[in-house]
């Protein structure tokens, strides 16, 4: 005797399986650390070469890459920091260690900008600019992916 | 479907945000610079961080040098230049000044050219409109056009510009622009000789552009002609202390030899040559000399003594010109040595040569003469004849000068200035007038200065300065043969007899300037029997001097003069340390005169315990405005209260428009003429009607003083506590040395200090002073060609806050310490040497 079994369409079955797998598995892995490092190095080298927009560009790429896998807010935030403020901050540290007057220049900049003449203000603003770029780039990248890749 | 809509919304939102972020960071918005470009760690503001701002020994190549040049520095930054040609000397001076003070150079020329807005945005517009209207740039161009390239000044200007541009080339190659350029993204243009002349014009306008005739007009309209004449007289009734006591020659005015670069040409202003007129120029917004460059308190000192007054004989000179104290300073210390020059002292960044200092044989310093230099004309206009004015019997078209002002982060602003034969039409203190300013004439003052740098005795010095026209200055002189002197140089305009140049004049032609005081008739003195010459911005000649010099609003009352003269009388032969002590003296001569009268007025009056204590402080006071003196606080607060008690009722009743010109009409600034009148009435006319307010019961000086004293004690008690002995002047009075950028945090102070606006160590302004001894110099001649000289100023040789030389001299200046001036004919002990040679 053969029992009748309700059979769904193969596509719906596959999608449902994948979604369920995601929900069961929870957070998926970040893109490979090598990719993150490559992104950070790109941003850092770009900053050295006076290319201010690279945190946005790399953030956009990261947004596309992570848009499908959805790593979660905390990991996303960490990623954006690694791709924006960290390389910019690291470059400032390297320059300071090599003898450049980073702190004094930061203080002067803050004063000239009408802000409290504190080095912390300018350095914080610098890191914020990088973060703003990586974040907005990432958001745009994800939105692009969801809009165009999803429809395929 | 809902999912598609959601994705589309996210895309649009994220794209919008991304675009906004990129635009904001890449192009900026309004006054906010492009922060992405400005803050990227490899460029922007950070580019200057890799600049080597520490001065160390180097071998450098500069194009345009003829022969090797040596530039050496002391540990504190005092610089010496040794060159084998005069051309190389000024080229090196330009390079050195640019390397240490580039931002200051650029800011000063932008200020004078009306291009501040290009760098700082809309905040600079008011200043730019003023400068373009007044015409420093037009004047500078006219001066350069009139300077023969082969002349001393022409060659110096060209070489200096070349030196500045050598440093600019380095900045362009390395990208290590100073921070302000990294922040704004603006790049300066190459330096030209016109730029130097603009910078010179900036200092000129600060020293002698004023609105005195318009202030008199406002006073006449409010107080009335009689009170204005009585309270702001042409000649103050108090004893003046001129350095030239006469007799005076009475010669015809000397004709003007060059034209006003900011006036329509009289020969070209006939009705037949009327140009096509555009729509009527609107009344124009009120323009005023920006407070940042306005000299608010005139209190320079310069004196010299010889013979028995100087230990060992010979002559000794002391000078401390008072300007706004800023970081960087207006001054840059330098010693210059070449075949044609051996001179050391204070230079003005942007200008070749030395302005105060000494050479191998002579020394000099200067004070602002404060003689009349700005005249205002009410043009006869007609609504039926737009853009025309009536002059010498005919209607004339106004000449128009058009400008466009670039504004960082904003739209370009257009400006049209109308010019008449008298000068530019401007709206000043609410009045539409044309401005005839002596600084607008295309004279060659630089040539005169360079000639003075090379003079060797009083005759050659005086002859060299014949060509100095603006600002009018008092030069004080001492030389290696033991001679001393003082002379006024510069154009002092004269108008026809019967005219009143202290008020706005008629523009129809009958009150035009007819000439200037002839050079040989200008006040001067040489080797007086008193063995002392001194200038402290006082009226330089007596009341019988036959030329108009100015009114009581122009000149200092002579309090500092009295202190300086008494110092010389009370002591024997003096040494340099005596002069440094005198430069730091804070005796208030007005207090010397008035405190006894106050104490007498308080005699027999019922006083509270607190008031008795305050009175006791005054009774035992040495009249010195020391920082730790409580009596100084009592005196100052009393004087402020006394002046307000007398004049405020009149100001209120007559509606004197103090807000129109806070710096001359505001009682809070204790206007000089009113202080003098108060002194005069208190001592000589205690029943003067001024003590009785309008429609009030009669009062005399004693009554008002008692009222003011009680009010002062109450005020101090409220501010500083109940114990008068704790009312140290330092709790009220501070000094500050702000950054020229206006950036708080990049200046010095404020810090508690002594002095007031009329002590020798002056602290101009109100209770927080940023005007004072901007440079101090003492030169003692010990024999032919032999001198010892000391100098200090509150600042540092560099304008970069990150360097040790930004403000390293301030503590020394505060502690009344001086540094030896590197001699022009020898070497100091250098800690760094630049060896410059020709090359790319």
Automatic annotation (TrEMBL), chain A:
<protein>
    <submittedName>
        <fullName>Uncharacterized protein</fullName>
    </submittedName>
</protein>
<feature type="transmembrane region" description="Helical">
    <location>
        <begin position="110"/>
        <end position="132"/>
    </location>
</feature>
<feature type="region of interest" description="Disordered">
    <location>
        <begin position="1"/>
        <end position="22"/>
    </location>
</feature>
<keyword id="KW-0472">Membrane</keyword>
<feature type="transmembrane region" description="Helical">
    <location>
        <begin position="28"/>
        <end position="46"/>
    </location>
</feature>
<keyword id="KW-0812">Transmembrane</keyword>
<keyword id="KW-1133">Transmembrane helix</keyword>
<feature type="transmembrane region" description="Helical">
    <location>
        <begin position="79"/>
        <end position="98"/>
    </location>
</feature>
From TrEMBL, chain B:
<dbReference type="InterPro" id="IPR002692">
    <property type="entry name" value="S45"/>
</dbReference>
<dbReference type="InterPro" id="IPR043146">
    <property type="entry name" value="Penicillin_amidase_N_B-knob"/>
</dbReference>
<protein>
    <recommendedName>
        <fullName>Penicillin acylase family protein</fullName>
    </recommendedName>
</protein>
<feature type="binding site">
    <location>
        <position position="501"/>
    </location>
    <ligand>
        <name>Ca(2+)</name>
    </ligand>
</feature>
<feature type="region of interest" description="Disordered">
    <location>
        <begin position="262"/>
        <end position="287"/>
    </location>
</feature>
<dbReference type="GO" id="GO:0016811">
    <property type="term" value="F:hydrolase activity, acting on carbon-nitrogen (but not peptide) bonds, in linear amides"/>
</dbReference>
<feature type="active site" description="Nucleophile">
    <location>
        <position position="300"/>
    </location>
</feature>
<feature type="compositionally biased region" description="Polar residues">
    <location>
        <begin position="269"/>
        <end position="280"/>
    </location>
</feature>
<comment type="similarity">
    <text>Belongs to the peptidase S45 family.</text>
</comment>
<dbReference type="InterPro" id="IPR029055">
    <property type="entry name" value="Ntn_hydrolases_N"/>
</dbReference>
<dbReference type="InterPro" id="IPR043147">
    <property type="entry name" value="Penicillin_amidase_A-knob"/>
</dbReference>
<dbReference type="GO" id="GO:0017000">
    <property type="term" value="P:antibiotic biosynthetic process"/>
</dbReference>
<dbReference type="Pfam" id="PF01804">
    <property type="entry name" value="Penicil_amidase"/>
</dbReference>
<keyword id="KW-0865">Zymogen</keyword>
<keyword id="KW-0378">Hydrolase</keyword>
<keyword id="KW-0106">Calcium</keyword>
<dbReference type="InterPro" id="IPR014395">
    <property type="entry name" value="Pen/GL7ACA/AHL_acylase"/>
</dbReference>
<keyword id="KW-0732">Signal</keyword>
<dbReference type="InterPro" id="IPR023343">
    <property type="entry name" value="Penicillin_amidase_dom1"/>
</dbReference>
<dbReference type="GO" id="GO:0046872">
    <property type="term" value="F:metal ion binding"/>
</dbReference>
<keyword id="KW-0479">Metal-binding</keyword>
